[in-house]
Specification:
mainly alpha, Serine Threonine Protein Phosphatase 5, Tetratricopeptide repeat, two-stranded antiparallel ribbon, about 50% helix, HCP-like protein, Sel1-like
């Protein structure tokens, strides 16, 4: 991610003769944001220069308004954590947070791919505790590319080692995100349910999401609530707390209780993980379970954004675009939207579509 100073001082190079959206290319790297035009006999696409090259002009205009709340679907956050090792042997009645990679003394017994997958599992759960789900997909793909690994190869390895329950969640996530294979929500659901029944908190969270959103199964908000609650019982699992809080925030499988949602979000940030920061910003922005305070909302969004969380980056962009507790600055708004879009935020991609088309 670019440094904060770079992000806040983007340089723009626009062709004064044409503002044709199809001719604008966003170049994102560690250097400041640059917008420039490119001529081509064909119809050039607007690209976000990420590993999977998002084509923003293929996106439809956003259907939602840019006021306080984002999507009300569960969850603005989906996440797990890496904090403790499961009991051995696994006790189905004991929630599992995370099994760290094997100790160095056993590494010599594993082949290179097994060692890499164990490391990837560690990265995966840590990312789920800090970032929204779309950003986690981007991060996993970047990790694979950065380590010269092919998604297809790792997916096949996970498939062949599906008998080991600790890999079930990651296998399900490959199915859900279409990493190394075609998207298959039903198979993702089946993988999550296998891990959830063995007490793996992250599988429980993602299974709760399947039930709440109807991914790979019929919508059942009561079961979604049940699995979020189970994961939240492991209090060090930040995504469990945040998703459980979402249930009370939006009435998913339970009665709405904004105060309880706020308290759970607040509890989640005590672990030092990022996921709850933007949630608290949202609470202060709209007055969810707490008195509305836009200055505090801005503070939490800044903390989240500067630590590379795409939700925080998106909302900080909104504050700059509309001049909420800051001077209105479309350049900085666009810059933060670019950072969020790089990290897989679809709403930020749509915002860029609108801003650059104007």
């Amino acid at each position: 991610m670019a440094s904060t100073n770079d992000i806040l001082t983007p340089s723009f190079q626009m062709n004064n003769e044409s503002k044709d959206f199809d001719q604008v290319i966003i170049e994102t790297s560690s250097s400041p944001l640059n917008l420039k035009t490119q001529s081509s006999p064909a119809s050039p696409n607007l690209y976000l220069n990420t590993p999977n090259h998002l084509k923003l002009n293929d996106l439809k205009s956003p259907s939602r308004s840019l006021s306080p709340s984002r999507s009300l679907s569960p969850s603005r956050s989906l996440s797990p954590s890496r904090l403790s090792r499961p009991p051995s042997p696994i006790n189905p009645n004991v929630p599992v947070i995370y099994s760290r990679p094997s100790s160095p003394s056993r590494d010599h017994l594993k082949d290179a791919t097994t060692k890499y997958v164990d490391e990837l599992l560690f990265v995966f759960y840590d990312a789920l505790d800090n970032y929204p789900i779309n950003q986690v997909i981007v991060l996993i793909r970047r990790h694979l590319e950065g380590n010269d690994q092919k998604g297809e190869k790792i997916f096949k390895w996970l498939l062949n080692n599906g008998h080991d329950v600790k890999y079930k969640t990651l296998l399900g996530f490959f199915y859900e995100g279409g990493i190394g294979t075609e998207v298959n929500e039903r198979k993702a659901f089946n993988s999550y349910i296998a891990g959830a029944k063995m007490g793996i908190a992250y599988s429980q969270i993602l299974l709760g999401n399947c039930y709440s959103l109807g991914k790979g199964t019929a919508i059942d908000e009561t079961l979604g609530f049940k699995w979020y609650q189970k994961a939240a019982e492991t209090e060090l699992c930040v995504c469990g707390l945040c998703n459980f809080a979402n249930c009370f925030d939006f009435g998913i499988g339970t009665e709405i209780d904004k105060k309880k949602a706020f308290n759970l979000y607040k509890k989640s940030i005590k672990t030092g993980k990022l996921l709850g920061l933007s949630e608290l910003g949202y609470c202060y922005q709209v007055g969810c379970g707490v008195e509305k305070d836009l200055k505090k909302a801005l503070e939490y969004y800044k903390q989240s954004a500067e630590r590379d969380n795409s939700d925080g980056q998106y909302y900080l962009g909104v504050f700059y675009e509309f001049g909420v507790e800051v001077e209105m600055d479309v350049r900085q708004a666009t810059s933060w939207y670019c950072e969020a879009a790089k990290n897989g935020d679809e709403e930020a991609q749509n915002k860029l579509y609108d801003l650059l088309k104007e």
